[in-house]
Amino acid sequence: MRIGEVAIISYKSREEEDFIRSICKKIDIKNDTLSFGRFEVNDQLALHLYGISVDNKNNSISWDLISRKTLGFIIIFDWEDKEILEATKPIIDYFSTNFNAPIIIVANIKDKKDPPIPDKFFQPDGIPLSPNSRFTFGQIDDQENARHVMILLVNMLIEKLS
Amino acid sequence: MEDIEKVRKILLVDSDTSYTVPLRNALTKAGYEVIYWDDGQKALDSAKNLRADMIISDVELPQINGHTLFKKIRSYPACKSIPFIFLSSQKRVDDRIQSMELGVDDYITKPFYAEEIVARVDALFAEISQLNEEQTQSEKGFSGSLTEMNLVDLIQTLELGKKSAILKLRHNSSIGFVYVMNGEVIDAVLDDHAPEQSLLRMFTWSIGNFHVEMTPVDRERTIQIQNKKLITAAMRRINQWEQVKQGLPPLNTIVIKTELNTYEDLNDEEKEVITGVNEKEKIYEIIERSRFDDLKSLAIVKSLYQKGYLQVTEDSYVSYTDNYLARLKKNASHSKTTRDRVASIISNVFKNSGNGTKMLEEQRTERRQLPDRRHYGRRRDDRITELNQVHLTKTDLLMIRERLS
Fold it and tell me: Does B397 touch chain A (CB under 8 A)?
């Protein structure tokens, strides 16, 4: 069985759980430190999604262990909450500095039908911020949107292998 | 002549007579001798002594399946290089990719026309003949993939051996020539570009093929710059190219114009390029057609992409998969790998040049560190490059993407 691991990170919220539910349909394991979901591609291949909310100071060890073999990171923050945006910046900086994996930064919007920003920012391939990171908007509790974010990450991994 | 007149034997293995009867007839009519079995075990028993020239087998077989049959047959030394074609009712891309990754030469999905199989069999035999021919010519030259050896590698190789050669480079639809005399580049030809401009363009080609013909070169020198300066310029060019390319999808991705048509935020050059884009085009086609320098064209295309004037189409996935399958097929070639062939030729080239190979390796190591430093950026240390290796294969990732779509 081949398994790819992806870390889903958010600050002081449970948005990572919403994201995992959108991809995996359910949370398989949940505790104070992390939430876990499994996305089966076939009987030989699966993705494991680890959700980490960094409001809990005790979880620093777990994400450090996980992220060293992680394929990529998805960092989610609430687009309409400036405080969370500010708090997310050092997290993004931490992961982009310490790990060599693609990062998708997702600005979560509440309702994709009524986006708080102009349509032209919703680029299909995200907005490149650096060779290793892209920014995109999305409604992460929407399955289609969440899958789009995962596809962005997979595309970056394919590019990394090319 | 004897080879041409010899009747080629094809071992056909399939339990479904609705396909095998017309296929046997068509192959026999095309001049092949067909030996037929309806189950994998019988085919395996006969394969050892049969000395077939090709095997065509269904993937789903009674007794042992096609994948096992393929692996067992390829494990016999005498059958190691027999070309192998799979037939299958499975249409899923990951099934195709899995079969191709095993190393089969072709994969055909049912239903099919018998004539289509005959055409593919003919094509495969022709390809093998060409490969054999290339191999027999390997004393005069060598061929390979630009992904494994780019133009800089080739020039350095010839420079160290002070060799004369004509390099033929093929990249998408473009073909270029570089003339090397006693290790020095003296001329380059690519479409109607000036010699130095031709070289600069070819330096950025990382996809495509090359052929090096080791031959005396008697030609007027049009490039006066010494190799050392040339290589420095090339490295700068490659770095610039790679930097500009960041953020764009692979250059063989098909893109379309979006509905944005005001062009208000575009400069004149961007307007000119976007106006010339056809309905659906690969990115490299836009760059190749542009009248601007290729680096500038790349930057313009990137800007158009980022501003939302160009977007990736659904066809890109199909195109990517087809390219991937084509590469797999090429890698599954029954002849020696390109790397092996190049390695053997290079060792011949340097057999009289002392520590030339070591020097070459050192230069390459030094050079390869450059993009790494750039890529991993400012605050990362070497430790970080060891982390987060992608341990899934491209096939795995394609399957994940397909499942997510």
Answer: yes
Single pTM value for the model:
0.39
If one compares A58 and A80, the residue with the highest pLDDT of the two is A80
Q: Provide the pLDDT confidence category of residue B94 given band limits of 50, 70 and 90.
A: low
The predicted-structure confidence for B334-381, as pLDDT tens digits, reads as follows: 434 433 433 343 333 333 333 333 433 433 333 333 333 233 233 334
Residue A135: which H helix or E strand, with range?
Answer: strand A133-138
pLDDT digits 0-9 by tens, A3-15: 889 999 888 777 8
CA triplet B288, B294, B296: central angle to 5 degrees? 130
User: Are B225 and B200 contained in the same domain?
Assistant: yes
Percent of chain A with pLDDT over 90: 23
A118 reaches B (C-beta below 8 A):
no
Asked if A30 and A71 touch (Cβ cutoff 8 Å), the reply is: no
Residues of B in contact with A97 (CB under 8 A): 379-380
Of A47, A131, A162, the CB nearest to B250: A162
What b/e sequence results for B316-337 when a residue is b if at least 16 CB atoms lie within 10 Å of its CB, and e otherwise? Answer: bbebbbeebbeebbeebbbeee
Is B172 a member of any domain? Answer: yes
CB contact under 8 A, A131 and B391: no
Cβ-defined contact of B377 to A130 (cutoff 8 Å): yes
Calculated CA dihedral for residues B103, B112, B28, B5, nearest 10 degrees: -50
Q: Indicate the angle between helix axes B195-203 and B151-160, nearest 10 degrees.
A: 110
CA atoms within 13 A on the CB side of A99: 26
Residues B131 and B144 in one domain: no
B396 occurs within a structural domain? no
Between CA B268 and CA B43 the distance in angstroms is 66
Give ipTM to 2 decimals.
Answer: 0.91
Domain that holds residue A124: 2-161
Check which CATH number belongs to the domain holding A72 and give it. Answer: 3.40.50.300
Given CB atoms, is A52 within the 8 Å cutoff of chain B?
no
User: Does B126 contact chain A (CB < 8 Å)?
Assistant: no
A68 contacts on B by Cβ (under 8 Å): 387-388
Quick check: is B60 in a domain? yes
Nearest-CA distance from A1 to chain B in Å? 11
Residue A106: strand, helix, or coil: strand
For chain A, how many structural domains are there in total?
1
Token pair 């939430």 is found at A35
Contact between B390 and A160 using a beta-carbon 8 Å cutoff? yes
> Which amino acid does the sequence have at B201?
R
Range of the domain at B268: 247-313
Q: How many helices (H) and strands (E) does chain B have?
A: 17, 13
Decide if B78 is inside a domain: yes
Q: Tell me if A119 sits within 8 A of A109, measured CB to CB.
A: no
CATH number at residue B14: 3.40.50.2300
The number of distinct structural domains making up chain B is: 3
Query: Hey, is the C-beta of B401 within 8 angstroms of any chain A C-beta?
Result: yes
Whether A159 sits inside 8 A of B249 (CB atoms) is: yes
